[in-house]
Design goal:
Elements (H helix, E strand, L loop, with lengths): L5 H9 L2 H9 L14 H7 L3 H9 L14 H8 L2 H9 L14 H7 L3 H9 L14 H8 L2 H11 L2
Helix pairs in contact: 1-2, 1-3, 2-4, 3-4, 3-5, 5-6, 5-7, 7-8, 7-9, 8-10, 9-10
Length: 161
């Protein structure tokens, strides 16, 4: 497996866009993975570096690449609550319904962690509310489990549309 160069990791993590652009212009592979499966795009998104994420996407970063656990950049930003980066990923074709190894989706993460602005965004863009995780639970079931009444209402309404 091809690994990151420290400079590519650092540029994605810190959001050093000038350096990142320079590395890309010099031919850096924006779709490499480290030993945990993290790509530069995943790292930029997890660290809330929207400008770096834009540069990586424009350079051909695989938007739905997953880390070793099966988590995509969209799943990560839904866990963390980064609305602006979630919108960037969605606008650039991120798969709203991709499931990680345990069947979790971005919608499930947003629901479980009370990221209701992201629940709304995902539902608006057509996230599938009927997908289930390894336990057979939907995002609606998870909203009930977490006591997330706002998400529960949004998900219930979306099931009937």
């Amino acid at each position: 497996m091809e690994t990151f160069t420290p400079t590519l990791i650092s540029a994605a993590r810190t959001g050093d866009t000038a350096f990142l652009q320079s590395i890309i212009q010099d031919g850096a592979n924006v779709n490499i993975h480290d030993d945990k499966g993290y790509t530069p795009l995943i790292i930029a998104c997890y660290n809330r570096r929207a400008d770096a994420a834009k540069i990586l996407i424009e350079a051909g970063a695989a938007i739905d690449a997953a880390d070793a656990g099966g988590n995509t950049a969209l799943m990560g930003v839904c866990f963390k609550g980064y609305l602006e980066i979630a919108l960037l990923l969605i606008e650039n074709g991120a798969d709203l319904n991709k499931q990680h190894g345990n069947g979790g989706t971005a919608l499930m993460f947003a629901t479980m962690f009370g990221r209701n602005e992201l629940v709304k965004l995902l539902l608006t863009h057509g996230a599938d509310t009927q997908l289930t995780d390894y336990r057979g639970l939907t995002a609606y079931d998870l909203a009930i489990q977490q006591g997330n009444k706002e998400a529960e209402a949004m998900l219930l309404n979306s099931k009937h549309n």
